[in-house]
Design goal:
Elements: E1 3-6, E2 23-30, E3 42-48, H1 56-67, E4 74-80, E5 83-87, E6 96-99, H2 101-113, H3 117-134, E7 139-142, H4 147-153, H5 160-167, H6 175-181, E8 185-189, E9 193-197, E10 203-210, H7 227-238, E11 242-247, E12 250-255, E13 271-275, H8 285-291, H9 293-296, H10 301-342, H11 349-374, H12 384-389, H13 391-400
Parallel strand pairs: 3-4, 10-11
Antiparallel strand pairs: 1-2, 2-3, 4-5, 5-6, 7-13, 8-9, 9-10, 11-12, 12-13
Helix pairs in contact: 2-3, 4-10, 5-8, 10-11
């Protein structure tokens, strides 16, 4: 179902003279699709010939050239000296950080293999969200663990090297075969669920297998509700603490109890996902350390990682509180007080109270906006005009040049 063609023989033939300087166009690969799902996604490959990274504006111009007013989702894969830069299908979003060739090949093959353009876009978005949450390609965390613990703590575990060796051969497994290789014995529960038991006498988890046209969160005719909602309902009925959802190469772990997870989100929004093609032999250990029967046994590595995540979250909160009240608020309060005096306010009891109220108002508004940018409640990374004025942009600018 996948074709490839040269840019010069396809829709861009009349506009190639307008190709931005620095780019050399290569091939275009079209994914799968049908009349109902719309035009298939395209991965357009180009080479960037300069040493510096291509700018967002240059990528947007090349993207517009390839789209050429069509209703076709287009993703640019631009080869640079520092790796493959991904841009699109949303031209307003920021490009992804460069990936090495092996990661990029696995990413785009997985995207092209999706049965519809909508699912292909969702697969691509999952990679962006994984990098945004953990900076680890193929590992997406949504409130189940602390990102810092996944990124820095887990690779420092004494069993990390062994876990990577155990996990590497499993990266090619799928579905029930993968579940079995993770150490579970399997029994049926209801029409669409599996009860997973490890070495102990009691079941540890429920597993639900999805087909390629189903997504985790969208209502499915097979379940009459979303697959996640169905799986959590079955986990509650079976009295187990975990739900494993498998869709092709994607594997998600959900807690089925409200006391599990550090993010305090709803159960259906709290999970860790690994996408097997994006893992390598160097970081494959996340698979067995989090998803295996040993990991989900009482006191197993998944519980240990969660405990370390909770400790980190508490310590982070304490450090933030100390920094706020010892470093941030005093300096901000003095600046506010000086400004109020310039506007005719006396720094008597009433003036000091006003200065404190204004200080806290400024601080909490800044804190809320940074949180909203981080959680994508504001379009940071998705809108170039917003990015120019975002607080994160200001912060990065001040970090790069603190003496301005």
């Amino acid at each position: 179902e996948i074709r490839n063609c040269d840019w010069s023989s396809d829709v861009c033939s009349s506009d190639l003279a307008g190709c931005p300087d620095g780019f050399v166009t290569r091939n275009v690969y079209a994914g799968r699709g049908d009349a109902l799902s719309g035009a298939p996604i395209e991965v357009a490959v180009a080479r960037w010939t300069r040493h510096e990274r291509p700018t967002r504006d240059a990528l947007a111009k090349l993207h517009q050239l390839r789209v050429n007013k069509r209703a076709t989702p287009v993703v640019l894969a631009v080869e640079t000296d520092g790796g493959v830069v991904t841009f699109g299908p949303n031209p307003a979003a920021a490009p992804l950080a460069p990936l090495d060739d092996a990661h990029a090949n696995r990413l785009f093959q997985a995207v092209l293999d999706e049965p519809t353009a909508l699912l292909a876009r969702a697969r691509l978005a999952a990679l962006s969200q994984a990098i945004d949450s953990t900076t680890i390609p193929g590992v997406k965390n949504s409130g189940l663990f602390a990102n810092h613990e996944l990124r820095a703590g887990v690779p420092q575990r004494a069993d990390w090297s062994t876990a990577c060796q155990r996990s590497a051969p499993l990266l090619i497994e799928r579905g029930p075969h993968l579940i079995s290789k993770l150490g579970y014995s399997v029994a049926r529960a209801g029409a669409h669920a599996l009860v997973l038991t490890g070495s102990g006498p009691r079941p540890q988890a429920i597993a639900v297998m999805l087909d390629e046209k189903e997504s985790f969160d969208t209502e499915s005719p097979r379940f009459s509700i979303s697959p996640v909602a169905y799986g959590l309902k079955m986990a509650e009925q079976q009295g187990v603490a975990w739900l494993i959802m498998a869709r092709g190469t994607q594997l998600r772990l959900y807690p089925a109890r409200v006391d599990l997870g550090v993010g305090r989100k709803g159960l259906a929004e709290t999970f860790l996902e690994v996408d097997l093609p994006y893992l390598t032999t160097a970081n494959a250990g996340y698979l067995t350390l989090i998803f295996s029967a040993d990991a989900l046994a009482d006191g197993g590595s998944a519980f240990q990682i969660m405990a370390s995540s909770a400790q980190y979250a508490v310590a982070l909160g304490e450090r933030l509180r100390d920094k706020v009240y010892e470093e941030i608020i005093p300096g901000l309060a003095v600046a506010v007080g000086n400004q109020l005096k310039e506007h005719g306010h006396e720094m008597d009891a009433d003036g000091l109270e006003l200065a404190y109220e204004v200080t806290l108002r400024i601080f909490f508004r800044l804190l809320f906006q940074v949180y909203a940018e981080d959680r994508k409640l504001l379009p940071y990374g998705e809108n170039a005009k917003y990015d120019r004025n975002a607080l994160k942009t200001v912060v990065k600018d001040l970090v790069d040049d603190p003496d301005q």
